[in-house]
Amino acid sequence: MFKKILIANRGEIACRVIKTARKMGIKTVAVYSDADRNALHVKMADEAVHIGASPAAQSYIVIDKIMDAVRQTGAEAVHPGYGFLSENMNFAAALEREGVVFIGPPSPAIEAMGDKITSKKLAQEAGVSTVPGYMGLIADGDEAVKISGQIGYPVMIKASAGGGGKGMRIAWSEGEVKEGFESSKNEAAASFGDDRIFIEKFVTQPRHIEIQVLADQHGNCVYLHERECSIQRRNQKVIEEAPSPFLDEATRKAMGEQACALAKAVGYTSAGTVEFIVDGARNFYFLEMNTRLQVEHPVTELITGVDLVEQMIRVAAGEPLPFAQEDLKINGWAMESRLYAEDPYRNFLPSIGRLTRYRPPVESSTPQAVVRNDTGVFEGGEISMYYDPMIAKLCTWAPTRIGAIEEMRLALDTFEVEGIGHNLPFVGAVMDHPRFVSGDITTAFIAEEYPDGFQGATLTTGTLRRVAAAAAAMHRVAEIRRTRISGRLGNHERHVGDDWVVALQGEAYAMTIAADHEGATVKFEDGSSHRVTSDWVPGQSLARLDVDGTPLVLKVGKIPQGFRLRLRGADLKVHVRSPRQAELAALMPEKMPPDTSKFLLCPMPGLIVKINVAEGDEVQEGQALATVEAMKMENILRAERKGIVKKVAAAPGASLRVDEVIMEFE
After folding, report:
1. Could you say which of 288, 296, 406, 407 is catalytic?
2. Can you count the helices (H) and strands (E) in the chain?
3. What is the distance between the alpha carbons of residues 114 and 27, in angstroms, rounded to a whole number?
4. Is a pLDDT exceeding 80 seen at residue 163?
5. Best exposed site among 21, 157, 234, 320 by fewest CB in 10 Å?
6. How far apart (Å, rounded) are the C-alpha atoms in residues 573 and 161?
């Protein structure tokens, strides 16, 4: 077995590999850029080597710099993680020439299956059902338009060396093809150093289901069942689960056997994933093969008990697989929520900055439930503009799907992140969505259920009443504490009343509180009541309560006459007032937000790549106005309505803050 391995990656996946290597007694080497000098993976590793400037193109994807780090530290093997150089055959070949083991497939297999165009051709030759498309290289936007017309709209524009949603666009018209082709090429070049693009038919209403395979150097290949990855936004997975709620045993077996046959056909070893799209009749079509570890591998580990990183290392060291196909059973259900530094209230645009608070739920493992958090950040650390916006992968397991969802709900409510925009509210809302809970999902789920973006979840009446009761009980605790302040004037005793009015989410509930040493009984005007118990005290940012015997977890912030409470994707201003205060508050005018309708504001910290219009131009609704790049993604800003450009305040190359003015309209 290896004594020392180098991890050619960063963030949570580098930390994940280090954990398994440490368990196996293997020393680890981290590499880092300027931006990652104080990163968690650098602190966790036994050694760390600086490899260059912050942009990945000047550090993490420069083969020579990784090779220098290997020579400098004497690492015997290299784990590439995912992204960066993980599917780069030149990197694998360079290691091979140096006599260093690549913890992944052999370079010919990477060449055959890692390239999306080549893998499609090989799959077709092997008789695998594939999606119609054009597998040749496409020279420019005009040729892309011609090919798209022949295939038929809609089409998917994809980077040949792509992954993680980078360099991918769906186009429904000639204009969108031209626009998407250029952006895909730019993103592909920036993310992978390879700007080749191909086009295929976009199958509407599909499910994205993938098969995890594992093959050794002795001719053994097994599949570790499937992952359902249909909850996606901009072709980037957000929530994954294993197994799929849609597949039956026959389809699962057929997909697994086909995935293994494909892997064997190209001499594949190590862990890999064969991705399929599956229609409503359970017909499946080969999409691509990722010749690396997947982001969502933890859900497979949770239902099979197999440490995929350990098996990759053992396979690379020449060991045979310790199990056969019949040994790999499905045990329970697992969920994964990807926590991204993306603000759902700003159409999921990237958010950067310092994590002023980062408190993930406590990891735990029992026969009834598992909570696991794979992360690469820490409280006080910074989220950089140079890399993928992932912060963590929160995973839960339970014997049933409903149980795994409920564990995820509680874990998400417990997860505290402050200082940046993040998608915790959104994934929390999805976990409560009836369609998701039923398993009736496709890759169009987010577009269909949130067509106007995400503005926060609306809680059901039952949940709202539980929150109102909890808020009243918490407010009473805070009021009693305030009466005990020392140094008061004599004869100024303050008494806390029992009658309160709680206003939240457009509703107001009058209630009476009867407290005792164990908790409080909150009685509503209609005669119904809730029993609330908790050890929360004012100042704590997380309240763990029990309402009628059911756990309720709230993120708590103080506002005048109440709280800011967050749970299940809802962000609530909750006012707790005496009946007289509530009567007077109803007479107060509502403060209106400022009018910004005549300005195009920068929606995220980012770099202006392109300005599409000039002062005096007339623009139409939906017309592209500017392109902003952040976290390796290009974002096209469009006109919301017809108008005339009065002033352009920013130029290409400018670095802007959130809400900085790009242009003004008449």
Report:
1. 288
2. 17, 40
3. 29
4. no
5. 320
6. 46
